[in-house]
Amino acid sequence: SVPLSFFGGIGGASKSGVLVKGSNYLEALANTEMVVFDKTGTLTKGNFIVSEIYSKKMSNQELLELAAYAEDYSNHPIAQSIKQAFGKTIDSSRIKDIEEVAGHGVKSVIDGKVVFAGNAKLMKREHISYNDRKLVGTAVHIAINNEYMGYILVEDKIKQDAPHAITALKSAGITQTVMLTGDADSVGKKVATKLKLDKVYTELLPADKVEHVEELMKQKNEKRSLAFVGDGINDAPVLARADIGIAMGGLGSDAAIEAADVVIMTDEPSKIATVMKISKKTLRIAK
Ligand code: ADP
Ligand code: MG
């Protein structure tokens, strides 16, 4: 039977803005060794802003319009930033055959022309030669009928609460902090260095994230747990694979909240250390 204090633990967590979906997770939380983070929307705001537009083929405004049309159907935070920068209404009747390519970008048919908008990986996949000079930020390359048109740079910011989230985890006894991201190597490394994370893996596809979590599960002490924290935009399979799947509920998708064992109701990653401390206290009382 479940000790009564476990309910107190779940209640205490919920007062701190954390939903724990079962008393068994209190034990796993108290026993966590490794915390693996998804970057976007978890350690960073997930709120990109267009910082640069570059094209030799059309005006900046035309490139932005093209990208906004290509991204019209996407819910990805990068798509949102481009549509917001464009700022005008989109005539959806011009758009057909929309395809979201996870970890790459989008493909749409606009006015009968095939438009790709996404990262270097997408351009390589489609054999489109693109501007590959060292770009600082997350580049969205755009091509029409396989002809390169230019790029839009978007930038996200580290959450104000993130540095504290990492130091609080260290003081709660977490020995390894890891970040996984589909974003560019330059962007991922910069965030990891700023936050003093122990490990970072970049330019990953959603399936690669599952593989990395499986590999990290083998590396940790088998009696202790691995927690994965994500916002659920295509990381629901990773949330399910970890010992404890934690979703950022503030921004996160319904799929993430569904797949997760623990939901942070605010957008503060420092709540992870808070709920781990509550779990430890609860277990001491229960024992
Ligand atoms: P993250 O690990 O940051 O959650 P995702 O798996 O969502 O990343 O995406 C990885 C990369 O794929 C992004 O950094 C971006 O380069 C590209 N990408 C994904 N979706 C889109 C989109 N709708 N438009 C442009 N680029 C995209
Ligand atoms: Mg994501």
What labels would you give this structure?
287 residues, alpha/beta, Rossmann fold, Calcium-transporting ATPase, cytoplasmic domain N, 2 domains, seven-stranded mixed sheet, six-stranded antiparallel sheet, 12 helices, 40% helix, binds adenosine-5'-diphosphate, binds magnesium ion, Cd(2+)-exporting ATPase
Summed up, the domain count is 2
Output the structural class. alpha/beta
Spatial strand sequence of the major β-sheet:
1-13-12-11-2-9-10
Calculate the mean pLDDT score and round it. 93
Assess the beta-strand content as a share of residues. 25-35%
Distinct ligand kinds = adenosine-5'-diphosphate, magnesium ion
CATH domain class of the largest domain: Alpha Beta
Largest sheet: 7 strands, mixed
CATH superfamily of the largest domain: HAD superfamily/HAD-like
Helix content: 25-40%
Overall radius of gyration: 21 Å
SSE order, one letter for each helix or strand: HEHEHEHHEEEHEEHEHEHEHEHEH
**Regions with little confidence, pLDDT below 50 for 5+ residues:** none
C-alpha geometry: elongated
In whole angstroms, how far apart are the ends? 13 Å
Write down the CATH topology of the largest domain. Answer: Rossmann fold
Question: Tally the helices: what do you get?
Answer: 12
| Count of individual beta strands | 13
